Amino acid sequence: MASVDVIVVGAGFAGVTAAREAAQAGKSVLILEGRDRSGGRTWYRSFKGREKQLEFGGTWIAPDQQPYVKAEIERYGLDLFQSPSYEKFGWGIGGEVDTTPFPFRPDEWAALERIIARIDSDSDRINLFNEPLGQPGLDDLDVPFTDYVDRTPLPDRVRDFILAWPAFYFGAYPEKLSALHVLSWNTGFGSTAGWYLLLVDKFVGGTCTLIERILNDQPVEVEYNADVASIVDDGASVSVTTRAGASHQAKAVIVTVPVNTWDRIEFDPPLPPSHQAMAVEKQAGESVKVWARVPRQEGAFFGVGMHTVFKWLAAEYTTDEETYLVGFASAEADLDGNDLGAIERAVQEFLPGVPVLDADFHDWNKDEFSKGTWMAYRPGQVMAHSAALQQPHGRILFGNSDLASGWAGWIDGAIESGIRAAAQATALLSLA
What we know:
This protein is an alpha/beta fold.
């Protein structure tokens, strides 16, 4: 039986960050990763049959608004590049696709201004980063986003437009989303303008570039294909057993796998009530992210729609011969990522007549190590559980993007949570 100071379960951004921080504090660290790679819900790989490398999981960052990821970029001197400047548009609102750069008539402007002003005002009530999102006095925001929006009477086209943004940003239907979680991202961006203007930055060389730099920063041992089956805390140490039967022992364990997969692990003692609730209820994110290869398109396209299959469709890369479109559907019920015909029909809602030559995706919803996509709190979950989820369970600590006090669901949130979990582990070991 191998014995170390800290075992980290999962090698996503939270896991590798927690491992680095614990090792930097002088602790011996072992990462157990169920997959054959690091990165978790990020994955930079080739489009099938092509040389083009693409992000099949988490992609974009906003370093000016995301302090933890900005610090990592500065620490390692990483380079960024931006999504293209869009020249063509499609707005799937009001039962049609409007192709103008700004889809609203003058008589709709006042309603649009009212709802945006209210969203910005309520977002200012949230104290981002300094405490968990379930803060006193915010109960009125932890409701379905549709209910929140409908407190302000809106024309149908304006309502569709407002609902479409969280539908793709969170990868879930708006009625399944906590308005409090949605507004927290608006808090982070600084205003609703951030939804439309600030999400452009990506890592040169892919998300794996930062993962590898963090992982190689400190002496950390990693075991891949080590799918954890059980974690037992006897009060003096913690035993971790994989499905292959390997057993490891540590003074503390940091669990960084997504909340939707907690039910795959047998915990002894059993998880606390909030952790159990989230393991059963799950978070709502179930986006289907698809890359579609089409003939070369002149002028970069960007589309958003509430009633279209793709809630977001954009031309991310164009070569001499072809364009790679990235599309997000809100749920696997809306789109089968293996059905090329369905993908082509979804693309043609925005780009009539454009054939899809091929498509590629990873099914995160059926992936046993994710069981869903990035964090999307359901109504009521933020106030009930967000604070408790960050608390240690004896010698078992928790850290992943789902649990962030800031950007829950983002790379920045994963890094924040990994740093916090490592600090909790280090403090625990200092008591020994």
